[in-house]
Amino acid sequence: RVMRAAFARFATPRAAASVHRAWSTWNSFFSFLVADGVVAGNPMPAVGRPRAPLPQPKPLRGADTPEQLLASVARQEGRQRDPWPERDLAVLALALCAGLRLSELLALRVGSLTGRAGERRVDVAGKGGRPRVVPIEPELDGVLAGYLDSRVRRFGSRTVRPDAPLLVDRQGEPLRRGGLQYLVESCYRRAGITDRVPRGARLHALRHTFATRLAEDGASAAEIMRLLGHASLASSQTYIEVTAGQQRAAVRSNRTNRALAGLVAAEGDARS
To answer: Which CATH architecture has domain 65-271?
Structure first.
């Protein structure tokens, strides 16, 4: 009773996340005391564990920020030591138009891009061992094709075999976690949008932007759940089976795909 009253006084003026962390800390502390024989029992279960708050989405701020970012990265800038705009654009486009996590991007292989024209998709090794398939529209497919063409020019055709890593660094080695984070942050700086990236989000802000735009453009909670690879959505009480056609329609409605269309056309003109 004393602990419940004390914890209630502590919790009243504080945010839910702070209360949840405090409960976990005190629970661990009393568990240690019980194990050491200092106290007879742990009072924290009687206090009641507060519900952990759901993490809030952290998309890029600004209505046209994704388009500004993509356009900036697509331009080859002379001040870069070894510019590779095709690779940089492919990374950002995969996150913005397919909603992939950092670990999922690193796990991609060239052979992860599958399907015939009009039905292209990326096979994703999802979080928690949950594989999923994300449809990709012709605009994103064109960006990825342009990147792979540029990779062949740099390192030769043997580097784009199906089992090869999809994303590589400027030496042709597989991109690693730190390198991918640095790449994305440098793209933010070049585009002049660092003030529009939520603190602590980094690459995840691109995934959140994908989901936010899907919702704004009419995708259902079930469609978003399947496309992002979530085990469940707390806001959805029932599971709705989503067909492949519905998922493709949801991706097609994503405005960021339309921003890629002009960039793909411009790259094609430059190569011809």
So the answer is: Orthogonal Bundle (1.10)
